[in-house]
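Narrative of activities, Objective 1.

The group set out to show that a structural description can be obtained from nothing but a protein's sequence at a throughput compatible with the screening campaign. Below is one input-output pair from the validation batch, recorded exactly as produced.
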Amino acid sequence: MWRPTRLYSQNFEDLYLWRIFKEKEKGYYIDVGAWQAEKDSVTKIFYDQGWHGINVEPCINEYQELEKCRPRDLNLQVALSDHSRTGTLYTYGESGLHSLSQLAETSIQEEFRFQKKSQEVQITTLSELISKYCTEKIDFLKIDVEGEEANVIKGAQLNALPDSIKPKIILLEANRANSIISSSQRARYHEYLLSDGYVHLFDDGLNDYFCLKNEYSFLAPKMLPPNVFDGFPICYEVFSQHENLSLLLKQSTELLSVEQARLAELLSVEQARLAELLSVEQARLAEEKEAHQFKLNRLREKEKESDELRSLNDQIIEKNNILNLKVQSLEQSLQEIAKELESFQKKNQMERLERIQIERELTFYYHEISKLDDKVNWWRRINILQNEHIQASSKVARKLMALMSRVSS
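Output recorded for this entry:
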């Protein structure tokens, strides 16, 4: 037999379930509307013992807490009803109240009434959830869904479940939110459960407990109010602890009053001392203020001079910018002149090469002309010789003619 070190549930639900399952070291549960992993948790003591199961919680913050604190469990961020669909979930701050139907304002704590929000959630059925994820016997099923209990039971189709999986114990919240008045869903889920083979086992003032018919005679004697035989501190121990805490609180209040009086006296003395120090400090600060004012005036004068220097500096910068622009313009002009000079040098070099070529050609022509002059001179000599020969020939001819005429005569 195992025993938890403490209880966590809101209304001793985990105590009643522990009485039933204290001989079972390991088991399986389904918690619909699990809310938080520890506070008001029906399954916390079973998880600590080594049990595991499914936690159904549509609110994101609580779901994330379950994911963090219950790694051995399967945690699902969905809502349950009698058929699958997408629907609207209404939440009310940290009140722990969230439902697929809007709750009456009188059911909500005053501080949470103006924290109402709505969000879209995926809705499935308990039957689909069990067929998809459950492969072992469900020891107990807890449902707390603020008015949707009957629809969740209807969607569970418990009569279709095999005995190897069917929950042994089912507990459902029976009252309206924050009220002792029975929920409007109570008669409906009673009818569904009775037709599914369950009998009403116990009413703890907040929840209805159902069990399989064949388990009733064994379990009914266990469903007693919390008592000393459970081995948990209740009644006398709790009240004694409360009285001890009250006495400690009273003593602490008296000590606090004495301490407050002592502190008030010390405060008065300290205030007088601080007032004197404040006066001295104020005088010192006045002197420092005067000195600082003098320095401030000097700084302002320097600042004025600095402004003038900045103005001159700006003028210098402006002139410097103008000079830079002129320098840039001159540099551009020099670059253009350099380009023109380079072009001129290339052109001059080409002209020089052409001149050399012309000089070479002239030299050649001069040489040829010289040759021609020689030839002309030679021809001139030949002409002179020819003329002289012709003249001589003429003389000879004349002499021959004269001679021939003498001979003939």
